[in-house]
């Protein structure tokens, strides 16, 4: 029961902050790309989606991700990434439980830490952060 309340509190905090950019304190982390990246590359991040749904439906998935890779978890509207709603074939107000990374190699490591395959993995331009 206590663990479930903790997860609910963390999920509420994550959803409350929605999409936040680098440097903003939040449970959601959107890593900055390497300094040598171009302007277009700075807007893109590597995303691995593990679940979609309403925020309350993502509670268990979020808890699993937070326990495995807390610095890479994003629980945000799918519309926070250009093209992601279309790729997932879901409405733009759907939420995703995902992990994010600045590079493909870093995402490989993060997904390996999670220990299972995501439902979708690609590079998307983030539109909700800085």
List its traits.
130 residues, 4-stranded antiparallel beta sheet, 5 helices, disordered N terminus, alpha+beta, single chain
Mind explaining what this structure looks like?
This protein has 130 residues and is an alpha+beta fold. It has one domain (2-125). Helix content is 35%, strand content 22%. It has helices spanning 2-17, 39-42, 59-68, 84-88, 104-114; strands at residues 44-53, 73-77, 95-101, 120-125. A four-stranded antiparallel sheet has the order 2-3-1-4. Helix 1 crosses helix 3 (59-68).
Count up the domains.
1
Uncertain stretches of 5 or more adjacent residues: 1-18, 20-42
- Sheet-strand content, in percent, reads 15-25%
Annotation field: number of helices: 5
Trace the largest sheet across and list its strands: 2-3-1-4
Helix content bin? 25-40%
Rounded to the nearest angstrom, the radius of gyration is 14 Å
Helices and strands, in N-to-C order? Answer: HHEHEHEHE
**Number of strand elements:** 4
Distance between the termini: 37 Å
Describe the biggest sheet? 4 strands, antiparallel
**Structural class computed from helices and strand pairing:** alpha+beta
Shape: globular
In terms of topology, how is this protein built?
Elements: H1 2-17, H2 39-42, E1 44-53, H3 59-68, E2 73-77, H4 84-88, E3 95-101, H5 104-114, E4 120-125
Antiparallel strand pairs: 1-3, 1-4, 2-3
Helix pairs in contact: 1-3
Please summarize what this structure is.
This protein is of the alpha+beta class.
């Amino acid at each position: 029961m206590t663990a479930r309340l903790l997860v609910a509190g963390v999920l509420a905090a994550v959803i409350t902050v929605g999409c936040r950019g680098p440097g903003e304190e939040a449970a959601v982390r959107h890593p900055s790309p390497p300094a040598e990246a171009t302007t277009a590359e700075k807007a893109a991040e590597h995303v691995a989606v593990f679940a979609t749904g309403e925020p309350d439906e993502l509670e268990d998935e979020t808890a699993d991700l937070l326990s495995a890779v807390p610095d890479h978890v994003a629980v945000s509207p799918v519309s926070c990434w250009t093209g992601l709603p279309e790729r997932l074939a879901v409405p733009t107000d759907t939420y995703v439980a995902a992990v994010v990374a600045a590079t493909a190699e870093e995402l490989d490591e993060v997904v390996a830490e999670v220990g299972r395959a995501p439902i979708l993995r690609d590079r998307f331009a983030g539109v909700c952060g800085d």
